[in-house]
Amino acid sequence: MYTILAILAALVLYAVFIYNGLVKARQMAEEAWSGIDVQLKRRADLIPNLIETVKGYAGHEKSTLEEVVALRNKAQAVPAGDVEGRAVAEGLLGQALGRVIALAEAYPDLKANQNFLELQRSLETIEGEIQMSRRYYNGAARDLNVKVESFPSNLVAGQFGFAKKPYFEIANEADRAVPTVKF
User: Fold this and answer.
1) Would you give the distance in Å from CA 77 to the centre of its chain?
2) How far apart are the first and last CA of the chain?
3) Torsion region of 163: left, alpha or beta (phi above 0 gives left; psi -120 to 50 gives alpha)
4) The pLDDT value given to residue 171
5) Domain regions of the chain by residue span
6) Which residues of the chain have pLDDT under 70?
7) What confidence score (pLDDT) does residue 136 get?
8) Which is nearest to 110 in space by CA: 174, 175, 43, 65?
9) What is the pLDDT of residues 23-33, one digit of tens each?
10) CB-neighbour burial class of residue 106 (10 A; exposed 0-12, middle 13-18, buried 19+)
11) How far apart are CA 67 and CA 73, in angstroms?
């Protein structure tokens, strides 16, 4: 009788241990997503300043500038939990930003503008931080996904509604490239 109770107690403790591990992994993934979201917000906040600076030099490039603003708004409108939708929207925005930065080649005065250069450096820094945040999130999502799919933790995960997290990936290979800026 005591043996059976001891075995049941051990199983309950093991289930609690697994549950707590799943909770920790889910929280790490959510915290990692928050880090990506912060960096994407920083980039989105930088875009209006960049656009205004470029407008002064490249007024007839209006369609390119309007596209960046529209893509920025579209990316910000993606629901908070839609990782895949956000990845697509941010990939398109990254491509458009690359085209804006490339405009500097056609406008020597813009290329020499100190404000533009500072904005460009800030954008490069933020792009690097987005990449680091994306790697951290994907690692946290991987850890959670392994626990959700592995036996015996998958039994506990299924009982308590733990689900896999999608990776923050960019589908289009051309979108993977960080805009290069050369002077």
Assistant:
1) 14
2) 80
3) beta
4) 63
5) 2-176
6) 60, 171-183
7) 96
8) 65
9) 999 999 999 99
10) exposed
11) 10
Tokens of 75: 């990316």
**Both tokens of residue 46?**
């930088």
The CB density around residue 152, as the number of other CB atoms within 10 Å, is 11
Q: Which amino acid is at 57?
A: Y
Structure tokens belonging to residue 13: 């403790």
pLDDT given at position 172: 55
The pLDDT, as a whole number, for residue 183 is: 40
Q: Residue 123: what residue type?
A: L
Question: What would the two tokens of residue 15 be?
Answer: 């289930």
Q: Write the DSSP string, 20-68.
A: HHHHHHHHHHHHHHHHHHHHHHHHHHHHHHHHHHHHHH-GGGHHHHHHH
Domain 2-176 sits in CATH 1.20.1440.20: yes
Instruction: For residues 129 and 120, give the distance between their C-alpha atoms in angstroms, rounded to a whole number.
Output: 14
- Produce one character per residue of 6-23: b if its CB has 16 or more CB atoms within 10 Å, e if not: eeeeeeeeebeebbebbe
Check: pTM over 0.85? Answer yes or no: no
Give the position of tokens 């920083």: 42
For the packed helices 83-103 and 2-57, what is the interaxial angle rounded to 10 degrees? 20
Burial of 166: CB neighbours in 10 Å, binned 0-12, 13-18, 19+? middle
